[in-house]
UniProtKB/TrEMBL annotation:
GO terms for biological process: negative regulation of Wnt signaling pathway; proteolysis. It is found in: Membrane. Keywords: Glycoprotein, Hydrolase, Membrane, Metal-binding, Metalloprotease, Protease, Signal, Transmembrane, Transmembrane helix. It is a single-pass type I membrane protein. This is Polysaccharide biosynthesis protein GumN. It comes from Flavobacterium rivuli WB 3.3-2 = DSM 21788. It comes from the Bacteria. The keyword Transmembrane applies. GO terms for molecular function: metal ion binding; metalloendopeptidase activity.
């Protein structure tokens, strides 16, 4: 279960639309506007078949002094903090969010794929149960870019920190109606992850092409309506909250930032928001 919880933490990412065209690239150099040394911004995919870091990313890690991810992945209290924030508020349960027939179908599906009954997980926010299922949606052992980045930082004896707390990130899934989350989980159960598996495979192909524009356009057409309808909560608000933090951190020391690739592009993406603040943000070729 511990491994599943860590994987679930790595999977929280958003979807956005109307992205302005950017160069192809996942690694971006941040410079100018008073920075003594450049920092770097890297778009991750939270679950992958191959999270190997290329030579350019490794070089950027070498010339920076610390790693910032969305969350502080080496915080020993992270798992306990997560467990404390996974439960729905006001005593809501998944049983109250679905018809008896849909609940039974979903319960059998969850038992088959996790070994736990839905009654055991029934107070969890439904999206967290979906996140636990993600490793089942790829035909390979799941890997995480966040874990790869954290491993390099550990080798370099550098600190790993987070742009937001577990509590802040998990609050996103209190802002999205629990019923909508449950409806998506029921859809996943009813087709036994067929659509989810195809969508995730297609996303990995686009990610490997390093084309943020194509990736975001694909995500906007996702069958997961919960994601498309709550772009402000999942992406925009968080991006805007991160900008002053990124500015202060980068001014203090050269830093490698790794966040979900969906956060990078678009008018309210991290790249454009930093450029509006006067920074030069350019793809590393």
């Amino acid at each position: 279960m511990k491994k599943l919880l860590i994987t679930a933490l790595c999977i929280i990412a958003g979807f956005t639309a109307n992205a302005q065209k950017l160069e192809k690239g996942l690694l971006w150099k941040i410079s100018g506007n008073g920075l003594a040394k450049p920092s770097y911004l890297f778009g991750t995919m939270h679950i992958s078949c191959d999270a190997t870091l290329d030579v350019y990313t490794l070089a950027a890690l070498d010339v920076t002094d610390q790693l910032y991810l969305e969350l502080d992945m080496d915080d020993p209290a992270m798992q306990s903090k997560m467990v404390g924030t996974m439960v729905m508020k006001d005593g809501v349960t998944m049983k109250s969010l679905a018809t008896p027939e849909d609940y039974k179908i979903t319960d059998e599906f969850i038992k088959t794929n996790t070994g736990a009954s839905l009654d055991m997980l029934g107070t969890f926010k439904p999206f967290m149960v979906t996140a636990i299922l993600y490793p089942k949606m790829i035909d390979c052992p799941a890997q995480s870019y966040e874990m790869s980045l954290a491993a390099i930082a550990k080798e370099q004896k550098e600190e790993v920190l987070g742009l937001e707390t577990v509590e802040e990130q998990m609050a996103v899934f209190d802002a999205i109606p629990y019923k909508e989350q449950m409806d998506e989980l029921v859809k996943t159960a009813k087709d036994n992850m067929v659509k989810d598996k195809k969508e995730l495979a297609d996303m990995m192909v686009l990610y490997n092409k390093k084309d943020l524009n194509e990736l975001l356009a694909f995500m906007d057409k996702s069958d997961n309506k919960m994601m498309a309808a709550h772009n402000d909560v999942l992406l925009v608000n968080r991006n805007k909250n991160w900008i002053p933090k990124i500015e202060a951190i980068a001014k203090a020391k050269p830093t490698f930032f790794g966040v979900g690739a969906a956060h990078l592009a678009g008018e309210n993406g991290v790249i454009k928001l930093l450029r509006k603040k006067g920074y030069k943000v350019e793809a590393v070729k």
